Batch of 2 targets.
Target 1
Amino acid sequence: MVTIFKCQPSRKWDIKTEGLMTINRMAGPRKQLKAVFWLLCVVAGSLSLPCGALCESPDPYAAARQRMVVRQLKARDITDPKVLEVMGTVKRHLLVSRAYRSQAYADHPLPIGEGQTISQPYIVALMTQILDVKPGEKILEIGTGSGYQAAVLSHFTDQVWSIEIRKGLAQKASERLKGLGYENIKVKQGDGYFGWPEYAPFDAIMVTAAANHVAPRLLDQLKMGGRLLIPLGSTTYYQTLTKITKTPKGKEVEHLLGVVFVPMVGKILEE
Ligand code: SAH
C-alpha cells in the first residue's frame, strides 16, 4: 500500500506559487533538487494526476496505524493515553518482513520466520497497559521475536532488556531495532528461562511465549513489588494471561484472560 502526499486540487495554485517562490530563493544543488521535487508535484497536481509516485510520504503506513489505534485499541479496552500514543508511533511495519508490511496493522498475528509470530497489535497494547511501566523502571522481556513489543516498552522507560532463544530472530530484531534508533534496548540470544542475572533485579518482566510454569529464576530476578506477566497454561492449546506480583507475603496471582502464544522452548521443556 502506498499512501500519497495529497496535492489537493483546491490548493493547486497555492502550492504552485509557494513552489515558484521557493525556487527563486534557492541556491545550491540540494535546494535545487528540492525545488525540482516541488515543481514535479505542482505539475502532477495541475494535470490532476495521482501524485503518489512523485510525492510519496515518508511514512506510508501512518494512516493505517492510526486506524489500528482507533478501531482495534480504543474501540476495545485500551484506555491508557500513553499506550495509545505509543501504539500510534511505533512503526510495526518496519519490524516485520517486507512481504508482511501491508498487513502490519491488521487485527491478527503475523509470521516472523522460524515458525514464530508477532502478536496482534491489541495483545501488545493490552500487555503493555497491564504492565504499567513507569519511567526509569528496568524491564526484561522474554521472547524478543520481531522486537516490536520491546520497541513499544522502550517508549515508557529507558531500560529494556530482551532475550530471544532463536539466533536468527535475535540477530534480525537487534539489527532492525538499532536501525530504527532504539539504542535503549539490549537484545541477547539465549534461553530466557534463566533470565538476565547481570542486569537484575527488574521492576517488571514480560514473557511473550507460552509457558506451563514460571521459571523460578525469573521470580528471583524480580524486585520486591515487581510484576511478571506471562501466558500461563498449555503450550499446545491456549493459556491464561497471568500477572504475578512479588510481595513480602509471597506471590499475588491474577488470572486475566485467555490467550494463544507460541510455546516457550529450551530448558522449560525439561522441567
Ligand atoms: N514479543 C515478540 C513476539 C514473541 S513470539 C514480538 O513482539 O514480536 C515468542 C518468541 O519467544 C519467539 O520468537 C520464540 O523464539 C521466543 N522464545 C521461545 N522460547 C524462548 C526462550 N526460552 N527464551 C527466549 N525466547 C524464547
Target 2
Amino acid sequence: LALEMALRQGLREGQFVLYYQPQFDFQDGRLVGMEALMRWQRTPAQLVQPGGFIEVAEESDLIVDLGAWALREVARQQADWLRAGHRAVPVGVNVSARQCLNRDLVQVLRLALGETGIPPALLRLEITETTAMTDADQVIGLLCELRALGVGLSVDDFGTGYSSLAYLKRFPLDELKIDRAFVQDLATDSHDAAIVRATIVLAHGLGLKVVAEGVETEAQSRFLAEHGCDTAQGFLFSRPLPLAAVTRLLQRGE
Ligand code: G
Ligand code: G
Ligand code: NA
Ligand code: MN
C-alpha cells in the first residue's frame, strides 16, 4: 500500500519516463519500430525498472492511469519527433489486462490522437496473449474499436499464454511478437526452433508481421532471418534507450 501511494504520487509529480527499445528489419537492418518501456525515476539517483512497480500497479486501477499516461506520452513524443522532421516509426505501448477491460481506453486514445494529430498507425498497442484470452469476446470488440481508430495492434509474449487459434483468427491484428523464452535456446533446442519456425509460418499465413523478442546472439539472429522473421528486437541490436539516445537514432534517419 505504501508503494502504491508512492507510485500515485510519482505519477502526479511526473516521475515516470519512457525508454524506447529499437526494432530493426531483418532484411535491410533499418529501424522500423520501437517498444516504449516504462521506468520510474523515483529519486534523481534511483531509476526503478518495471519489475519493481508494474505488478503492484496492476493490482489496482493505478495501471489504468499509468497506462493512459504512457499512451499520451508516446503520442506527444511522436508529435515532437514529427515536428522536428525526424523519421517516424511506430511505437509499441504495453497495455495491461485491466486497461483493456476498462471502458476509458478507447477514449484515452481518441483524445491522444486528437490532441496531437499524429497518424494513428504511429501508435501500436501490445496486448499479451493472456490478456486477449481473459475475456476474448470482449477483447475482440475492443480491438475492433481500436482498429477503427487506426492504431496498430500486436500480440505480445506469443506462445507463453493460452491461445486459441480460433480467436487468433478473429482478432484484428497487425503483428505477433514471439516471446523471448522461445528465442533464447533457438540455436540449441530443436523444439524451440520448431516452435519459432511454425509461429513465423502461422503469422505470415494470417497476414501478420513477426517480431522476435530477446534476440541476443548472432546465431539466433541468423536463424530468424533465414526463416523469414520480419523484425528483430533484442540486446544484440540495442537495449532500451533513453529519449535523447533514441532521438539521435531517429535523426540519423537510418
Ligand atoms: O523494461 P523491461 O524490460 O524491464 O520491462 C519489463 C516488463 O514490464 C515487460 O514485461 C513489460 O511488458 C512491462 N512494462 C514495461 N513498460 C510497461 C508499460 O508501459 N505498461 C505495462 N502495462 N507494462 C509495461
Ligand atoms: O514483456 P515484454 O514483451 O513487454 O518485454 C519487454 C522486456 O524484454 C523489457 O523488459 C526488455 O528490457 C526486455 N528485453 C528486451 N530485449 C531483451 C533481450 O535481448 N534479452 C533479455 N533478456 N531481455 C530483453
Ligand atoms: Na511488450
Ligand atoms: Mn513480450
